[in-house]
Design goal:
Layout (H helix, E strand, L loop, with lengths): L1 E6 L8 E9 L5 E9 L4 E8 L2 H17 L3 E6 L8
């Protein structure tokens, strides 16, 4: 699953973005990646590991909701067929 969110600045600055990705690893665990930065500039990448899919989904949704509350808008989503993916 992947979400790309952007916040448009009021001035002529480049937009800020957040990309949240949830992937299953080869051992059956789940990794949540949160990348953020300014479009065309430096980025920060944070990673969290989860053993259970449900825990990873809760963290994914919490990260998404936190960014939406900060004024980010979803620009692109991939792999979010239903409330628990496919």
């Amino acid at each position: 699953m992947r979400l790309y969110l952007q916040a448009m600045p009021a001035t002529a600055e480049a937009p800020r973005y957040v990309q949240i990705t949830l992937e299953q690893d080869l051992l059956g665990g789940w990794t949540l990646y949160r990348e953020s930065g300014v479009q065309g500039g430096k980025a920060t990448l944070k990673r969290e590991q989860f053993l259970e899919r449900d825990d990873a989904l809760v963290a994914f949704e919490k990260a998404r909701d936190a960014q939406i509350k900060r004024g980010f808008r979803v620009m692109f989503s991939q792999g979010l067929d239903g409330p628990y993916g496919s």
